[in-house]
Here is the input.
Amino acid sequence: MIRFSHVTKQYPKGGPAIDDVSFHVNRGEFVFLTGPSGAGKSTVLKLIYVEERPTHGEVKVAGQSSATLTPRQIPALRRRLGVVFQDFRLLEDRTAEQNVAFALEVIGTPQENIGPKVARVLTQVGLAAKATALPHELSGGEQQRVAIARALVNDPLVLLADEPTGNLDDRATRGIFQLLKEINATGTAVLMATHDLATVKAHAFRTLEMNRGKLVYDTGAEHPVPADEFDPPVPDPTGATP
Amino acid sequence: MNLALREALRAFQRAPMLSALSVTTIAFSLFAFGLFGLVALNLRSALADIEERVEIRGFVAEGTNPEATAAAVGDIGAFPEVASVRMVSEVQALDRARRELGEFEDVFEAGILPASIEVRLKEGFRDPTHVRAIATRLEVYDFIDDIRYGEEWVEKLHRLRTIATAVGVSLGLTFALVAIIIIGSTIRMAVLARSREIRIMRLVGATNGFIRAPFLIEGFLKGLLGGVLALALTWVTFQFVGQYVVQATYFNGGAAVLGVIGGALIGLLGSAASVGRHLRRV
Here is the structure.
């Protein structure tokens, strides 16, 4: 579903952010992306949600290749991905449910479908009772749950999480990690970038370790890619929600 | 579209001071444009008044058969450039001279002034080239002795009109450009103020057109409001000038509506130019 083939990303200033990286992530997998700060974890995620394009090599996501993807096709691809960040990126002047609904509204979801979808996903992340709270009225862990709900509301193929617990205390971290595992159990792949080695070691999930832009270790490298893996084409960006 | 409109209105609601400031800025730049428009309008109508007096006079030789002149009047009246043709008899010419030059009444005696054919031209044909062409065509009639049309005066008027048009167009374009730049920069502020939202919209897969729409609507609305405000300001100025300085002409209803729509379009154009450029940086 996600495939990196000899991908290098070179920024105009400085050395390569990532250097000749190859790996794949299958449907429904849970994968840690670890490594120290500056190892290139965020760049890998940015290449997946097409915030960046590779300098060399090919990134293939949900059947779309970075070599052929046009700017007009990017929105449609992003509708199939969910992304969460360390700093939550919520709109401060909107309630939890409005933040989640926003993600549906801006892709043209019919109004009558928005309410039920938002309610379902807020229940899934355990925040149904705080639907009308503004972000500043919520704890860090709760804000990250809202961000996860927003990422999930479009039923993404994969949830990309960039240091999702980086700003949270231990208890909140455990809660968020538990939530990501539950989401993964429903069939959504999760790719979680983290430098929290304790969490990584405590779980037997596949781990990609990066250092100075190189992929130095992949616990899942021995697993072959299923030959029958099917990547459905991405729908037209002007169409309805996938 | 519904959401885009809601987001545009939300921008006004969330930053009322900033919005009021940008509407006022737009209003003042359109006000300058409007004042200039009023000056241009009045100059134009003054010139048009003067131009209406452009007239070609063919003096008819004494003893000409009235039937021949009547036939000529009919012919000349059929020229496409001609608005009206009038036959002025000797008696009428004398009457008019006495009326217009009252104190020299005694000087004029019967038979001193010749009869004439007076030709007025339609708007758009009062320039030197057309006037000269018509004058030449009058020369074919044998009974016409002399033709006068104030050649020098027509040329000066034409030059004045050309200069007024050139100055009008260039100043008008400058003012419009200034308004577009000002609106563009207010939209730039709006884009930067909402960069967080834009980033999230991108992330969840909103198309660029969708992201742009609220800003375009915002620019349009600001231009519209600024246009209405500018119209009110020019009206107040016009009243003031009318009372203390000089009686002038104000925009008619159509021009006023056109001005406000123009303001809205300038708003739309300014935001379109600005939003694309700044979206790329967010």
